[in-house]
TrEMBL record:
GO cellular component: cytosol
Record-given protein name: Pyroglutamyl-peptidase I
GO biological process, one term: proteolysis
Top-level EC class: hydrolase
Keywords: Cytoplasm, Hydrolase, Protease, Thiol protease
Family: Belongs to the peptidase C15 family.
GO molecular function: pyroglutamyl-peptidase activity
Species, as recorded: Arsukibacterium ikkense
Catalyzed reaction equations: Release of an N-terminal pyroglutamyl group from a polypeptide, the second amino acid generally not being Pro
Domain of life: Bacteria
Localisation per UniProt entry: Cytoplasm
């Protein structure tokens, strides 16, 4: 059985939940057909450990597609991340109290990698189902961008057949309840959205650059 790996993060920055893990865990074990099923893994919101656990999950499950999810509190739409940058500048400490500033994820890596998920086709499919989603050109400079860059670095150097990338999610409604004027999206909508992204990722080729 081929595997699609979905990762989510544990809660951070004082939140009780993280939509990324709520969505990923809901999809764990989902079987798309006779050939493909989803395995979900929770990553710590800790710079060093998240990459070690990601690499371990990839080695163990040998997925054909990896979709990493993270929370982007305050955004109103799913953010389909195009660019993983080799730059870390944590605005606050991670869950282990580390706060790397002005540094790199990979000291000998390129400045950035593109996602190799079929982002354009994913956006089209989401919009056709009336799910708000947009292309994002920065995944930030905190743990999510670090893990996204780490994934693309692994794909480039060790697992060339994997299609992988990152999607940031809005808060869930219960997180936005007591924050003024803050966007959120229902869990059921987010789950539907990631199912669509998985299906499109399996069917479509990565976005082609026009050169
Ligand atoms: N979001 C954070 C880290 C974990 C998460 O879910 C980020 O955007 O970097």
């Amino acid at each position: 059985m081929m595997k699609v790996l979905i990762t989510g993060f544990e809660p951070f920055a004082g939140e009780a939940i993280n939509p990324s893990w709520q969505v990923a865990s809901a999809l764990h074990g989902w079987q798309l057909d006779d050939e493909v099923s989803i395995v979900s893994v929770k990553l710590p919101c800790v710079f060093k450990q998240c990459l070690l656990q990601l690499e371990q999950a990839i080695s163990q499950f040998k997925p054909v597609v990896v979709i990493m999810l993270g929370q982007a509190g305050g955004c109103a739409q799913l953010q389909l991340e195009k660019i993983a940058s080799n730059f870390i500048n944590a605005p606050y400490p991670d869950n282990a109290g580390q706060q790397p500033r002005n540094t790199l994820t990979a000291s000998h890596g390129p400045a950035a990698y593109f996602s190799n998920l079929p982002i354009n086709a994913m956006l089209q499919a989401l919009h056709s189902q009336q799910i708000p989603a947009q292309l994002s050109l920065s995944a930030g400079s905190y743990v999510c961008n670090h893990s996204f860059y780490g994934l693309m670095h692994l794909i480039k150097n060790q697992f060339a057949s994997i299609k992988g990338g990152f999607i940031h999610l809005p808060y869930l409604p219960e997180q936005a309840l007591h924050k003024a004027d803050t966007a959120s999206m229902a869990l059921a909508t987010l789950i539907d959205a990631i199912k669509i992204c998985v299906e499109v990722s399996l069917l479509q080729q990565p976005d082609q650059l026009v050169v």
